[in-house]
Amino acid sequence: MVDLHQIIEKIPKVKYVDFRTVECQEIQVASRPDSSEVFESESEKIVCRVVDKGYGIACASKIDTQNAEMVSELALKQAVLTEREVRLSPIKPEVGEVEYKEKKEFNIEEANEFLLSLKNELKARLGSLYARSELVLTHYHIDSTLVTSEGTNVRESSPLTDLTIYLIIRDILQGFASRILGGKGGLEVLNGRDWDYILDDLVSRAKDMLKAKLMSPLERGKGFKVIFDSETAGAFAHEVAHMLEADTFQGKFFQDLDIYEDFTIEDNPTIPGAYGSFTWDDEGVRGVRKTLINKGEITLLHTRLTAKGDEIPGNAHGITHIPRPSVSNVYIRPSDWSLKEMFEDTKNGIYIRGLVKAEVDTIDGRFELIPEIAYLIRNKKIEEPIKQLKIVDNVRNAIQRVDAVGKLATLRPNLEKGFCISEGGPHIRISGIRCF
Fold it and tell me: Domain containing 99: what range?
């Protein structure tokens, strides 16, 4: 056992020192068209971060006293060489240990049986239309400790499980659909889900893709009332949150916003069982729920480097580089619209489902989203499916045009620069957003 406190005490007086150790075990079980695969790996790292004249960081891939002393010397040299002035906002030191237990231990044989049952169910639903599917079930166990010169000493141990399903069907044309789900825990993360609904929905969307058409050239670039499903609404929330990261924030996009009264985006690392939940962030700050945006309120995501005055840190992600502000579980808070009411209130528009890509340019505010499939809404009803639709607009405009927020929210696991997060929300409607 490495005595990190003792090594910290040996370091010449500087503004701040910490050690972070991370141990990760990964098991991946995959069912692919031509193979069934199991991948297992273990890794560990020790990182020292020193603040003196600047910020110095060094890491090694083995946790022992020799490497701890080596990275502390390297980090100290980097902190002396760096010219950037660094000020960390003061925090109350945290001491504690949190261990999330698996209710159902991840078992390779059971995981293989589960994937095979899903594949067989998809084949049975599709018959001759079935072309291939890829199912990947991944389990992580991450054990992390942070010890600082300020007195913080925390350890967090978390199991995480996620499942990716990718389905392709073929007739004259080809259709596809995908789904990602997961959370904190073992195989119990997959229990209690409505698998009949999940598989039926995948099959339905893939079949719709076979008959989907391109949007009419006469309609491209026009503004539509667009209903986002939970996945695309969550992606929208995630991209808005990128604009609220304190180190890249540009106030011009959020000045004097006219926001729908029921539209609220929150970031909450304390949701039990959620994929992006944590007790302490990567600077040892206890995570708390934050309202990022609603009518009359804008709050930024902060680290100890960016927070000033009464601004609240607690969203730091970064171990082997300077921590940056980022989301944990980001979502649109549910309101009171049912999906049926949204359709009844949308005479003509577009309904988008599933996510291929979403991104925002934090410099110019350009927001782009590509759904897996979309549907024309005519006379308040879903009509023909559309393929290769793209939504492109300014994020400020999109925020101000949200005019309906649904009742039921779900979260979708995701990775943000290698860190586990989740994004989600209920169905939402944005009016006058440009579609191509």
Answer: 4-210
Instruction: State the pLDDT at residue 218.
Output: 79
User: In terms of domains, do 193 and 230 share one?
Assistant: no
Task: Mark whether 143 and 248 lie in a shared domain.
Answer: no
pTM, two decimal places: 0.95
Q: Tell me the β-bridge partners of 266.
A: 291, 331
What one-letter code names the amino acid at 339? L
Q: Using the 3D structure, point to which of 154, 178, 210 is the last residue of a domain.
A: 210
> Is the pLDDT score of 224 beyond 90?
yes
Query: E strands along 66-129, which residues?
Result: 95-99
Domain count, the chain: 2
Closest CA to 156 of 118, 225, 99, 107: 99
CATH number, domain at 193?
3.30.2290.10
Tell me which H or E stretch contains 331.
Answer: strand 329-332
User: Is the sign of the CA dihedral 285, 153, 151, 247 positive or negative?
Assistant: negative
Residue 351: half-sphere exposure toward Cβ, Cα within 13 Å: 23
Q: How far is CA 252 from CA 55, 73, 255, 301, in A?
A: 30, 43, 5, 17
405 CB-side CA count, 13 A? 23
